[in-house]
Amino acid sequence: MSIQQQKRPRFLRHTRQREAILRVLRMTHEHPTADWIYQEVRKEIPHISLGTVYRNLKILTEMGEAQEMSYGSSYSRYDGDPRLHYHFVCDDCGRIEDLEMPLVEGLEAKAAEWTDGRIESHRLEFHGLCRECNGR
Amino acid sequence: MSIQQQKRPRFLRHTRQREAILRVLRMTHEHPTADWIYQEVRKEIPHISLGTVYRNLKILTEMGEAQEMSYGSSYSRYDGDPRLHYHFVCDDCGRIEDLEMPLVEGLEAKAAEWTDGRIESHRLEFHGLCRECNGR
DNA sequence: ATACGTGCAAACGCTTTGCACTCTC
DNA sequence: GAGAGTGCAAAGCGTTTGCACGTAT
After folding, report:
1. Does the pTM exceed 0.85?
2. Is residue A5 very low, low, confident or very high in pLDDT (cuts 50, 70, 90)?
3. Where in chain B is the domain with CATH 1.10.10.10?
4. How many angstroms separate the first and last alpha carbons of chain B?
5. Which own/partner pairs from B97-106 qualify as long-range (CB within 8 Å, at least 24 positions apart)?
6. Using 50, 70 and 90 to split pLDDT, how confident is the model at B111?
7. What is the pLDDT of residue B74?
8. CB B88 within 8 A of CB A108
């Protein structure tokens, strides 16, 4: 269940591909999928491969140049408590804790002022290191 | 990109399998994966299949008896804005909007009182229907 | 009797990876 | 020229699905 760090090169190089991917990422607010980015970059670099897109997205995410909107692990996890509550996720071991803290008052109402969608619920999740992973 | 509703039966039946899955789900706070639940239920119903577990988890989630901790869509989406900010996710069409709202003050400090992990960041996401999907 | 649920295995589809080659530094 | 990055294709792997059979109502 542990989320392993993989080996990273000692330094990063500038390549057309990486630059183009970052440019596409910066240029859109659509929260694109890897494949959408691939199609877009292909207009400029027709022979780029999807694998390269994935590799660079991962690197850019690790460098803090982008965010990947998904969970660290590849599979879904289920919570048998259907009530709205918050979670703490350990970014190292993947462990998820329920937080017993009270819900933040008026959060959805506040957010409603910033979108014209209809808000029906929310999800709040804290990330960091659990006690065990922090200790080592 | 649209998240389709699939056909549901007109009524649900009680089965040993469904009951066992729900019981396992209720019994743990570990936010298990489908496979973990499968292994657990297998102790009681050795011939249950993983497909059945997935099917029931989906149904239980739709019935509001459990939560699935992942995004509605199966692929990752990327955000070229690396700053911490909140999102609005349309549960119908999958569209994701950036919210320009200010960060909630003191949120991580508050949460830190309820866990012994070290909090380093958080993620807040509002769900509902975007304007277009709400209108139809 | 009806039609929902299950087991099994194959199919799916997004993502990752091995390998030989290319390109930065 | 060392080693990081790329393209291609195959492999990985969690999840879904088709089908024939079982079973709750």
Report:
1. yes
2. low
3. 13-81
4. 17
5. B97/A115, B97/A117, B97/B130, B98/A29, B99/A111, B99/A114, B99/A115, B99/B126, B100/A114, B101/A110, B101/A111, B101/A113, B101/A114, B104/A104, B104/A107
6. very high
7. 75
8. no
Q: What is the percent of chain A where pLDDT is above 90? A: 82
Distance CA A33, CA A38 (A): 9
The chain A residue lying nearest B131, using CA atoms, is: A117
* A72-87 per-position pLDDT tens digit: 567 889 999 999 999 9
**What's the pLDDT at A2?**
45
Q: Which residue intervals of A2-67 are DSSP H helices?
A: 16-27, 34-42, 50-62
Residues of A in contact with B114 (CB under 8 A): 88, 99-101
Helices in chain B by DSSP H: which ranges? 16-27, 34-42, 50-62, 107-112, 131-135
Residue B49: nearest nucleotide (C-alpha to C1'): C7
Q: What is the CATH number of domain B84-135?
A: 3.30.1490.190
What is A13-81's CATH topology?
A: Arc Repressor Mutant, subunit A (1.10.10)
Task: Check if residue A56 sits with its Cβ under 7 angstroms from strand D.
Answer: yes
Output the known binding site of A for Fe cation: 105, 122
What are A7's two structure tokens?
Answer: 């080996």
Residue B34 CB closer than 7 angstroms to strand D? Answer: yes
Report whether B16 contacts B45 (CB < 8 A).
yes
- Is pLDDT above 70 for B1? no
